Amino acid sequence: MTNIVLFGKPGAGKGTQAEFLKEKYHLTHISTGDVFRYNLKNDTELGKQCKVFMDAGDLVPDELTTKMLLEEINKHPDTNGILFDGYPRTISQAQALDTFLASIGSQVAATVALEADDEILVARLLERGKTSGRIDDQDEEKIRNRYQEYNEKTAPLIGYYQAQNKFHAVNGIGTIQEITVRLSAVIDNL
């Protein structure tokens, strides 16, 4: 099982790139955002709890996120590997993921980070917000709050995965095709 964490700030292109990578490498794509939206749309108990945080532009607490993601992983027992998009976001989540994967005889093979300037990402999200209907993509203050949360809670994951020799940074600016080529070069060398 080849498990890859696709890492980056909101708007970095994780979802777009995941679509190409899942096909190319025959991976199961698990997007935290998609899992949240499913739970919100279906008005699950976890979805109701998450809605409060998402509407405020905050990251959902680790415990709720992990519960949803582990449920989703368990739906794919025969996969070649999982492409995690938006998870883990904290060291606590990474440790929970490592523990869970070890319990099924697997591990994270690599973390690949899409890196881009905040101003470019804010513009991307505001543009996406015009058509996505996502409240958290329509308010610049909420977007910047998400980046502050990312810097405080998610950026420490870089060191966590560097210590395991599993962190790879990729320039997230350019055409979709150029970025896919950069990501593929990293994955092909795992």
From TrEMBL:
PROSITE patterns assigned: ADENYLATE_KINASE
CDD domains from the UniProt entry: ADK
Cellular component annotations (GO), alphabetically ordered: cytoplasm
> Into which family does the record put it?
Belongs to the adenylate kinase family.
Is rRNA-binding found in the keyword set? no
EC category name? transferase
Reaction equations catalysed: AMP + ATP = 2 ADP
Residue runs in coiled coils: none
Q: Where in the cell is it found?
A: Cytoplasm
Query: Which residue stretches belong to region NMP?
Result: 31-60
Q: In which pathway does it act?
A: Purine metabolism; AMP biosynthesis via salvage pathway; AMP from ADP: step 1/1
Binding sites annotated in the UniProt record for ATP: 11-16, 128, 174
Kindly provide the name given to this protein in its UniProt entry: Adenylate kinase
Give the Enzyme Commission number: 2.7.4.3
What function is annotated for this protein? Answer: Catalyzes the reversible transfer of the terminal phosphate group between ATP and AMP. Plays an important role in cellular energy homeostasis and in adenine nucleotide metabolism.
What GO molecular functions are on record for this protein? AMP kinase activity; ATP binding
Q: Tell me, how does this one assemble?
A: Monomer.
This protein's UniProt keywords: ATP-binding, Cytoplasm, Kinase, Nucleotide biosynthesis, Nucleotide-binding, Transferase
Name its GO BP terms in alphabetical order.
AMP salvage
Checking Pfam families in the record gives: ADK
Family matches, as Gene3D superfamilies: P-loop containing nucleotide triphosphate hydrolases
Known SUPFAM superfamilies for this protein? P-loop containing nucleoside triphosphate hydrolases
Principal localization?
cytoplasm
Q: What is known of its domains?
A: Consists of three domains, a large central CORE domain and two small peripheral domains, NMPbind and LID, which undergo movements during catalysis. The LID domain closes over the site of phosphoryl transfer upon ATP binding. Assembling and dissambling the active center during each catalytic cycle provides an effective means to prevent ATP hydrolysis.
Q: Which organism is it from?
A: Flavobacterium crassostreae
